[in-house]
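Researcher: Please translate sequence to structure tokens.
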Amino acid sequence: MKYFLTLFLTVSILSAQTEKPFIFTGKLRHANTYTEIPDAYVYIFNSSTGVISAADGSFSLIIPNHLPNHLIVFEHVAFDTMHISLAKALNRRTFYLKPRIIQHEAVSVVAYRERPEFLLDLPTAYSTIKAKTFENRAYIDAGDLLATDQSIQIDEKLSGKKTIALRAGNPDDALVLYNGIKLNSLFDNVSDLSQISLDDIKQFEIIRGSNTSLYGPEAFSGVINIVPQLYKNYTARFNQKIGSYSSGSWGIQLHHTFKNKAALSYSFKKGNSKRVFTLNNRQEQLQNKQQNHFASLVYNLATGKKPQNVNIIYLYSELQYANSRYKEDLSDNNRLLSLAYNGPLFGGGNTTVSAAYKDYDNRHDLQSGTVRRLQGFLNQSYYFNLQTQYSWRFASLLTAGQFEMGELKYHDSTDDPRLTQAGIESSVFNRNHLGLVSVFKIHTASRSTFLKQADVDVSWRFDQVKNELSDIQFRERQGSLPDVKNWQAMTYKFSSHFTGQSPYFATNAYLNFSSNVKFPSLYQQISSPKSSSSFQGYANPNLNPEKNKSLEVGLELSKENEEFGPVNGWQLTFNYFQNYYQNKFRVYYVPGTPISFYDNVPNASLAGLELNGKGYLLSSKLILETGISHYSISEKAAFPFKSEWKYIGNIEIAHRGYSFQIHSFLESNQSAWVRAQNGRYWEIELPGYMNLDLHFSKTLELRFLTFLFNASVRNLVQDDTQLEGIAIRDRRYYLTFTIQY
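Model: Translation complete:
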């Protein structure tokens, strides 16, 4: 009797234990690169039980025992869906997902998280560069990385300053954002990409063309949105980089997640480089120093599938440049602090509310002989943004209100006794900019076997700019006040968008008509004083906004082979655009003066054709890409030193944690028209440029530590191009070592 009672109690206890759910844990990784996969949906088939993978790819799924014959499903918009029985899954700790070529929005929560914000705007040509492409590589900054894109040209100064030109436009035609906050300065509407470290970046979003309504009038040729990495796959990381010209940098990054509710990050990076060169039998030196801080806090408020969070981001960069040849010193300090809420608000649609503060302190000290020039500015700006999206079955509406309140303190002085100086030496400039946006989309489904959906999109934008100039101090000769004005403008844009599917390929096409406007910068207003009688042929500029009308056609064809074979799929994209400008500003310099002048081209045009093809082979372990861009520029004085042709070729190989990349591009000759003192122009031409970069990387995991090693060769094709006697395109070598926990 005692034996049967013991057996009964044992069976009862075991039965009670089996009634309790247990936790199934694991980690998701990319099948080729072995990188972790965040934001994947892991769930039990035919049930509502599921979780989202964390930043390091880990997940913990509660398995209730009352569901028999469990089938575990792993889904992500960028990867093939995996089904595996629970019995087999329990024998694994890591699950490898194969990347997709055509990314379908298979899981609403994942698709929502992965969907870039700019897709809420009108259809446009875009591409993304994800962190796995550049993480721990030998790119010094964002400028080096973006130069590999087929539609981008980077202009680099000896000081290390790098500005971007999109689609053969000027640097002040491109808008650079950091997590949606404008980085362009009020001074010249230009952003220095050398200030952006790559250590805390999730991806770069490259939006081409002036068809965006959401981002405002500065986006004449396109937008670069830099998306920070707020959730990281490590607790602590240390990296060290060494390379040519005594260059080196080191950094430390810390990250912690609190009960899947809050994520706190901080990183610090410091680097420098030094070049010694001989010029006129004298040994000179160039030295660059860089320092970066990044901090973020994200708190997750979501209780359902829709994301809802509050985030705080702090960014600080400091650059120091010294050139012993001219006794030249340059200092740049950039600080950004932002607070944002994302999620539903007051029972409405998805809403983003954000506020940010930015200051940019630029100082330039140049001593040439007995003459000294001091130039610089301090830009302080406040940004406020309210954006809401409403979605229905056959339509969607995006509305946004944006406000920028900025102050800029400017100074530019020289003690050259040979010059009779005119114009403004220092001033305080204030600008308030209000923007209102509305984008309405109509979605129509089709019963055609090929045409799946046809959308009609219409957008409207209103901008109002108020300027004020105060505390003016003139140079030696009294000048006249700039014609500072207030402006307002309304722009309209229309787009038709089509998607289709056939047994041979999937189609995505759009046709855009748009108008845009760009307001004169402070630099254009104060650097254009009334001309003196000694300078012939000078025309006072028309200080009114530039206008642009654009037509663009885009077509994408893609194919994904589900059958086993060496070719897994391919993708072809085609874009053609025409831009027509009115009152286009162009800059020129008068010999013997420290300031630049502006006048206007009444009419100018810029047209372009962009082709790109990708092939995915051997389960996407091998990716081949080639692209060509051709631009036709009507007025080279308005678009100086722009390449009319650019070719790219990329090869990426990834297998079992090994990675090998080849990035190459060829830019054609760059020409510009320069104005002489008699008012006439002559042409200057710079030679074309071929670049070839090689990157080899290996990731190794040892218990709780991950080791990453990279060896890179940049500018493998030696180029003799010099700037002020210094080679700027010569071959360079870099080694990078990273350890993370």
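Researcher: Any highlights?
Model: Residues 225-740 form a domain with the Maltoporin; Chain A fold (CATH 2.40.170.20).
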